[in-house]
Queue: 2 jobs
Job 1
Amino acid sequence: MSHLIFDAGPLITVCRFSVADRLVIDYILQRCEITVALSVRDEVVIAGASYPDAQAARQRVERGQIAVLTPPSDPGLETQIALYGLGAGERDSILLTEHIDLEGATLVIDDHLAYLVSDRLGRQKRFLLDVIVYLVNAGELDKDLAIEMVDAVRTRYPPAFVEHTMLLLRG
Amino acid sequence: MLERPISQFVDRQSRERNVSPQQTVAELIFLGFETLLQKLYSRYRRGEISFGRLAQELGVTTWDLSHLLEERGWPTYNLPSLA
């Protein structure tokens, strides 16, 4: 089972959109372990009362389906990340890839700048769309279901990214 | 305490539109927020700042920001797209 570290952006996406009356996050949770940084969890808790998607995330955190971890202290890495002025959740999600329990985990991040920063730092990362493609290629997710999932979240990505993903899936 | 040109503007606007100074100030704050949002959002779409940073600058959570952008019909992503 793949281990994924979700930044807030893709977490919102998977908690917001559904396929066949089931949230996308539940399809992912069935196949992957998901961990979020403490700061991402805090945002879920703060916003949890206001929005149904945040409530969905909060419920899964409270049930222990989404693990929450504090990123390890790494002053050198923190200094490098600070140069880019990322938000706390993005910074902590990148730092979390250093956690001893998350060796081999993939950071799921959809923000342009945060993706570039994690790339420059040599982190293993994927866009959420590529996680879906990966699960299909690994034989863990049905192709037709994956196409429905991509279609469900299409408003969260530029059209070219969505159409490229569809081409990869229909291959 | 508002600076003199601003207080004069508020007084004149309130008289001309027959609304309270408080309402005029509230409208100005709304306009100021929208202007700041548009300015920061442009930077976000150009990939100069991240989604989390945009939320922090506006003093909202990423969840708030996601909904705020959608309410305006603005894309929530900043990945490159064709014009």
Job 2
Amino acid sequence: MNDAVSISLDGHRRTYQPGEILSGEYRIERMLAVEPSAVELSVLWHTEGQGDEDLAVHHFERWSREQDEPADFRRPRRFQTCLPNSPLSYQGVIVKIRWCVRVRVFLARGKPLLAEQPFQLGSLTAASAALPVE
Amino acid sequence: MPGLARYLRFYGKKRGDRRTGSRELGTFGFGCAYALCFAVGWGLLALILVYWAIPELRVNRDFVRHICRVTDVRLDRAPSGDTYAPRLHVEFEVKGKRYSVWAPYEITDPHMADRDATRKILDRFERGREYPCWYDPRDPQRVVLSRGYTWYTWLMLLLPISLIAIGGGGLSYYVWGWGKSAERRAALAGRSQRLDFFDREPDSQPWFPNVPGAAEVTNSPGTVLAFRLPSAGNSWGLAAGLIGCLIWNAVVSVFAVMAVRNHLAGQPDWRLTLFVVPFALVGLGLVIVLVRQLLISTGVGSTIVEISQHPLYPGGAYRVFVSQAGRLKMNWLAVSLICEEEATYRQGTNTRTVQRRVYQHELFRRQDFELQPRRPLEAQCSLDIPAGAMHSFRADHNQVSWKVVVQGNVVHWPDFERVFLVHVYPSGQGSEAA
């Protein structure tokens, strides 16, 4: 993660229901030594836990210096998407599903910068607490 | 000089939620493995074509039939000393020029371990007699005394073709993903999935990504309740097990027969015997497991589970009908609703799958009873999905599954368990209970 990039969700919400609109903005906070060559914004879910990671992107925007109009990423850029019916955020025992907004800034040199803003889709309770083995 | 705190790890390991090792290094490793697979496939293909397939094609299509005189025969021993091939000294004349050469019996010139079988081929030829032969018009010194197609030459082609397909496919995917972020790759893959969905008939069904389709459960109507649930793939597993067991034991029996023959002939090959024994034991184990599974499948009658509504929703209440046929004396039979998480991960070169039961509720139990033919046990019970429960979820490496499980403990018979998948959808999408 990097503090050079910030993401904020409208109304500082943390929980959304399927079908609701998720909107917000992101920007590059400070002057970078190297101009970005590409910037990607994704609204995605990924798994955590014992298994290999699964990842699916629900909403994706990409700007690249070679293909798009010049852009100033120090000014906030808005995004908006209607959230899907599934999968809902889940805190399982060996499978966990996390939703987040992720911004990846590719630089001409060096590692890309990465920022994430997690949020919860749906309101399931944790598996171990809500569903005890009888 | 300071020592290394830890060694560089070339492969990843799972430690609970944490993975060690480098993802980039892993991806690069896979790319190299696919490239190697691709290259080896082409190398093998070239080898098989040059040494077996093309000569065999040529001998059958281009070689000229002729008559030669066999003047001598001998057994050609391979440099390793364990295999033999027949050699025949032949004389013949082509366009006024006389040729005198040691010819192989077949163009591919296979060397066999069975010396007697090779000798038997030579015994078919008498010195001084004439026999048909086939010579290469480009080089008449190349002559054989038998032609035809061998099945193993063409079967061998499957190996390089498979390697080329696997290596080529993997390499293409690797090149396609080169320089793209994980999100961009996933977005491109997801776009084609969404296009597939929008190609469907507009039947007003909302789309639930990563939730298994209800149709795989609702395509069979029930006789008592709305839907008969399909059993989770036991018969296919049994068929696959049977085929695997047959192939394994067929291959092992070839080596076992060779080893036994050597012992009976008074020339025991202990290296071969020691090599065969563990494989034979595994084969025996496979037979035992298969027989046990067959006993469970055929000895215990069919199990039918029907449900009043599908898909299911958290907070919903449903009815389940269970029918157990057979001719058995049972200690108990239980029907349970189970939710399991399943995670698959790679550890080195192995792929492992772990399951964790996160919900289990017994719906029905009967103890100490007897099943009679034509009088199956039939029962109905209620099934409640807890409010706030996780919906069914299926991704490449992780899944959450809901199942109705019928377990039985039979007197003097192995226990049995039959699994019937149900799909739970997220609530709030037409989630009225039955």
